[in-house]
Known about the structure:
The structure holds 2 protein chains of 2 kinds. In chain A, 74% of the residues lie in helices and 1% in strands. By secondary structure, chain A is an all-alpha fold. Chain A folds into 2 domains: 2-88, no CATH class; 93-330, MetI-like fold (Orthogonal Bundle). In chain A, strands 1-2 form a two-stranded antiparallel sheet. In chain A, strand 1 and strand 2 (85-86) form a beta hairpin. The longest helix of chain A has 31 residues, at 300-330. Chain A is globular, with a radius of gyration of 28 Å. Chain B has 18 helices and no strands. The relative contact order of chain B is 0.11. Chain B has a domain at 111-284: MetI-like fold (Orthogonal Bundle), CATH 1.10.3720.10. Chain B has helices at 15-20, 22-30, 41-45, 47-79, 83-88, 101-109, 112-144, 149-158, 164-176, 190-197, 200-211, 215-223, 228-239, 241-257, 260-265, 274-281, 287-307, 309-323. By secondary structure, chain B is an all-alpha fold. Classes of the chains: A mainly alpha, B mainly alpha. At the A-B interface, helix 1, helix 4, helix 7, helix 8 and helix 9 of A face helix 1, helix 2, helix 4, helix 5 and helix 7 of B. Chain B: InterPro entries: MetI-like, MetI-like_sf. Chain B: It is a multi-pass membrane protein.
Amino acid sequence: MSTTAIDQTDAPAEAGAGHPSPEAAARTPSRRRRRTPLTWLRGGGLWNLAFLAPMLIVFGVFSWWPIARSVVMSFQKTNLISDPVWVGLDNFARVLADPNLGTAVVNTLYFAGLALVFGFPLPIIMAVLMSEVRRGKGLYSALAYLPVVVPPVVAVLLWKVFYNASPDGVFNTILGWVGIPPQPWLQSPATAMPSLVIEATWAAAGGSIIIYLAALIAVPPELYDAAEVDGAGIWRKIWHVTLPQLRGILFIMLILQVIGTAQVFLEPYLFTGGGPNNATLTVLLLIYRYAFQNSLGGAYGEATALSLMLAVFLGLLSWLYFKLTDRWSTN
Amino acid sequence: MTAPAPSSAQPSVALRQKLAGLGRRRRDAADGGADRGILSGHDRRKRGVRVSMAGVHVVLFVGLVVAGLGPLLWLAKAAVTPTQDTLSHPFELWPNGIDWANLETAWNDIHIDQYFLNTIWVAAGSWFFQLLIATTAGYALSVLRPKYAPILNGLVLATLFVPAVVLLVPLYLTVLHPPVIDTSLLNTYWAVWLPAAANAFNILLVKRFFDGLPREVFEAARTDGAGPFRVFWSIVLPMSKPILGVVSVFAVIAAWKDFLWPLLVLPDPAVQPLSVRLPAVQSQTELDVFLAALAISTLIPIVLFLVFQRLFLSGAGLGGAVKG
C-alpha cells in the first residue's frame, strides 16, 4: 500500500512536467523514488504495454465497454437511426408491464427447478460409483463425456427427432416396449418443458461427472482410513467423509447450474421456439424477441433492461447463497 | 514410474501414524500406487460389496453405453437409412437396404462442405486470438507484473461475474458500430473471434500456470541478456504446453458449439458455421439427408475427442478445480 501512496503524490508533478527533459533524467539518481516517463521506459514500461495491448483493446471494446453500455442503454431509447434518448425508467416499466414477463419468469424457474431435480444429483451419484470401480474407469469417463462433445445444436436437432410424437417415434417406441402409451413430448404444454430438461441434463451431465471425479480423487485417503478406525461403514463414509469433502465443489456447481439454467436459450429456441402456447418461453428468449425478433425494429432498451434485471437478480442470489453457505461451512 | 508401493491401509493402525505418513502416501498415490476411495481393501473382500460392485459395473456399463453412445450410434445408423424406415421403424437395422447416397447429398446439396470450412475458420480464428490474448496478458500480469497489474487483474476477473446475457445486446451494437474503425463487423469473422478472445477464464487459467513457473529461470535468462519478448517466446511458452493445450481445447470446443452469437453477427448464410446453418436448413431438407448432415457435423468433434481424450478430460477436471 505504501508504494501506491508514493505514486499518488508523484502523479501531479509528473503530469506538470509534460515531456521528459534531460535534466529530469539526470536528476533521477539523486531522487531515486521519483518516476519519470524515461525511467518508466527503461524499466520496461513499453514492453509491459506491448504485452498488455491486445488484452486491453479486446477487453476494452468487447467486454468492459459493452458492460458499461448495457447500464446506459437500459435508461435510453435506442433505435440505431436517431441519437439515443434518455427515457429514465420507461424501459423497466414497459418490461415489467409485459404480460409475457410473468410467463417467462415462471417458465425459467420451472426449467431451473426441474434441471436441479434431474440434473444435480445424477452426476454426483455417477461420479461416486465411477470412482469406486477398479477397471474400466477410463472407458466410463469417455462414454459419460461423449454427449458433451456432441455440438449442442446437433444434440437438440437430434433429440427433436427422438421426441417425434407419433407412436413410431424413437422414444415412443421405447416406451411402447414397456407398455407405456405414446407421449406428446414437445407438442403439449405439459410435457414440453420436462422434455427440454431431459435433453439438457443428458447434454450437461458428463461435464459435471468429470469435475466431480477430479474432486473425488483429491479426497485424502487418510480420512477414509480414520473413519474406518472409528467403525464407519460404507454409507457413513459417504455421508461423513465424501460429501463433506466435496462440499465446496458441490456448492459452486449448484450456483453455477442455477446461473446457467436461468439463462437457458438454445433448448427452448430450437426445440419449441417458446411454444406450445408460450409454455417454454424463457427470460432469455424474451430478451431475444425484444431485441432481434421485433417487427417494429429492435427494442434494445427493453432488452438491456430485462438483461440487467436478470443479471442483478442472479448477482443478489449468488451473494445471498455464498453468505448462507459460508455460515453452514463454518458451523 | 516407480513400482507401486503396497497400501498399508489396515483399520487397526492408529490415526496418528497415518497422518505422519501423509506426505509419503500422497506421493504413492500420484505414482498410481496406493490410491483408495470410499471402499477399503477390507470392504472389497466382503461378499455383499463384491456382488454390489458387480452390479455397479453392469449399471454403469449399460447406462453409459445406452445414454452416451446410444444416440450417436442411432444417428450413425439413421444417416444411411431412407426416411420412411427411420420414421416407421426407428430401431430396425436397414429393413429396406442402406442408403449411402444420403451422405453425398448432404455434403454436396446442403453444402455441408462449405459450412464445414466456415466452422473450421471460426474455430481456428477463435483459437488463435484466445491463445494470443491469454498468453500475452497472462505473461504481463504474472511475469512482467507492472505496478498497475493488480487493478487490471481485478477488472478482468470482474467480467467473470457478469452473466453472458448482459453482453448480448450491447455487444451486438458494438459489432454493428465498432469504435474508431468506421465499418460494421457484421458478417465478418472478426465479430466472432474478438469477443471470444475477451475471455477472462483463459487469462485466469494461464496466469495461474505462469505464477507457478520457477522465477529463477526467468532471472537467469535476463542476466544472459534475454529481453521480455525472448523470455516470453523461448522460455515461458515452451514451459507452458500443458495449459496451452487445455486453453486450446476449450477454445476450439466453445467455437464449435457456439450458436446464438454467430446467429446474430453472421446473418449471411455464405459465412455461417454449421451450428447456425443446420437449424436453418432443417425445414427444406428431407429427414434422412438432414440426419446425414447431423452425423457429418458430429464426426469431427467426436474424432478430436477420441484422439485427445486425456487432454479433454483433464481439461474438464481442471475447469472444476478452478471453479472450486
